[in-house]
What we know:
With about 350 residues, the chain is an alpha/beta fold. The chain folds into two domains: about 5-145 and about 320-350, Glycogen Phosphorylase B (Rossmann fold), CATH 3.40.50; about 155-315, Rossmann fold (3-Layer(aba) Sandwich). It has 15 helices and eleven strands. The protein has a five-stranded parallel sheet with strand order 8-7-9-10-11, sandwiched between helices. A four-stranded parallel sheet has the order 3-4-5-6, with helices on one face.
Amino acid sequence: MFKHVVSALEQHGFEVDFLVKRKDMLEDLVRQSGHDYYIVRKRERPSVGKLGLIWALFSMEMNVILYLIRRRPKMLVGTYAPVLSHLIGTSMIVCCEDDAEVVPRFAKTSYPYADAILTPFNCSGGQWDSKLTKYHGYQKLAYLHPNEFKPSWDIVAPILRDSSRPFALLRFAQLRAHHDEGISGITNQIATTLIEKLSKQFDVYITSERPLTPELDSYRISIDPMDIHHVLSYASLYIGDSQSMAVEAAMLGTPGIRFNDFAGKIGVLEELEHKYGLTYAIPSSEPQRLYDKVEELLSMPNLNEVFQQRRQKMLSEKIDVTAFFTWFIENYPESRRIMKENPGYQGRFR
């Protein structure tokens, strides 16, 4: 989300550090980008339960404070707000595209300590709504807007088993984040049924955060995280239980179905589904609806052309998020005042 923003800030004379949790592939992505970074949470996953989360947050707070004392940055920008950042006079801008009701722990531990909160226009800030600066865009447009991302077939073709055939991409998430408690997704049985249906028209590839059965593992594809969006862009269909990749597929105009218990609950995805028709959400209790939607999409003439037209409509109504974020950070706190008095100011970042 911040890669292109950081590049723009550095071109304008700013010095920028990354503070990174050892989570998934975050450290690898930052390392490959060539930027300086500091590890603020060394464990890949905090201990299970509330006490484990509290200890992980406390440990991270201490590491951030040590960094703040050493480096004395003018501002912190990110996806969480250190409780103690105000002690040394550091401004804090939080970026989030989840409704506060969907990520209550995050909201309670970050929003009270943020000076400003940047969210897409349709997000809810709960009791902290007055702190929100809302923009007409999505966080993932910061790296998937056409001004920032150009898909390359030369990257995708060598990854595929047969580059002459259209393909569908299945994504299985861990669903282990704190807000995923009690959330179900695509089971092995459902995955097997999906493959049977999709194989009539497409080669099928799986990218998965969780272990697979030997049968499903034969469909697994190895993709460098830096290349995943190129692959997603050329996919004829995406199906997964990940919120993030469902949004990314929509940004790229790739037909997508999200199958988990967040269906109907997330403002950004609700807008992408019901206003732009770029994605579909189906709860895990209704696998037959999932199969029916797959059949519907498989029978749709010119499926990818239709979704690219829908994507263009969405893009025409959204801003270049990288340009907006860069301006907002460079000109803060004046930028927050401008947006509060004149939200239409963001229209110049198209």
